Amino acid sequence: MFNSTNATCTLCNDVVNIIDGEIHIANSSINIIENVVNVFCHSLIIPIAKKECNFLLDHIQTIINYLIQGLTPNSICEKLGLCK
Q: Alpha-carbon torsion 29, 10, 57, 48, what sign?
């Protein structure tokens, strides 16, 4: 879907790590996780990064499911087409 550049892959890994931390460390609900990721996405200043971040926000439940299954952030980003 997106150009699988290092920046895209890094952004994806960062967002997935945020989600993972919210699940496993803070034991946050889906609404809290969505709010945290939404704030992160809105803090980005580069338009393409915001677009990619919002793509991840749209797929947050899928990401959570993958994390629960034990997939690594990089594996999840590969499945989403954001890492090679």
A: positive
